[in-house]
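*** Residues and shapes ***
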Amino acid sequence: MDEASTEVERVYRSDARKMWGALVGFTGDQEIADDAVAEAFARAIRRASMIDDVRAWTWRVAFRVASAEIQRRQDRVDDPGESADPSMGAVPDLVRALKELPPNQRLALVLHDYADRPTAEVATILGCSRATVHVHLSRGRRRLRELLEVRDA
């Protein structure tokens, strides 16, 4: 096994479980999380020698794969009021509230607050500045508090 492949394996062992949990929080769907983690690491194995930072790259790819799947499922839903995932009734209030946030706020919160990714890495994944990440975090936390307080009332 070459050095690049060893690095992919090391990142998989250290980050895959936390990445999966963050993706479940982001998407509310375990199947999407499973597929996104698998796809991100499969792509990393194929491109290992071309990737500078395997950890940041796999996180970014996993969330892009998950986002694309969410969009694909939403495009298939005929009724705009119909949920693409009928099992969402069993998902905890936090995940349902997260799904109501704009995607960049949701992604910033899940990556930073749940997955413990630094703001610089979140900025790279989102393709924005660190200051913008701080804005997403602030607005997302405030909105999340509002959504959860309404459900508790």
